[in-house]
Amino acid sequence: DSIYYFRATWLYIVIMVFWILSVAVSFYELFKYFKISSGMKRIRTLYLIVGSMFGFIGGTLAHAPSLGFEI
User: N or C: less crowded end of the chain, CB within 10 Å?
Assistant: First the structure.
């Protein structure tokens, strides 16, 4: 128990929800562009989507202890 995590307050949760909504809208726009693109731009967009998903999922998991989830 040598690691200390702060407890999330209501303001933290509101900001986190806003951040998650912003990320969701960004992914929606990327998927829309992915549907209409072709060739190399389509492949680049796919790499951007997959890489961003890994990054955002990993970053979001870092907030779990402050919300009371044990990792």
Answer: N
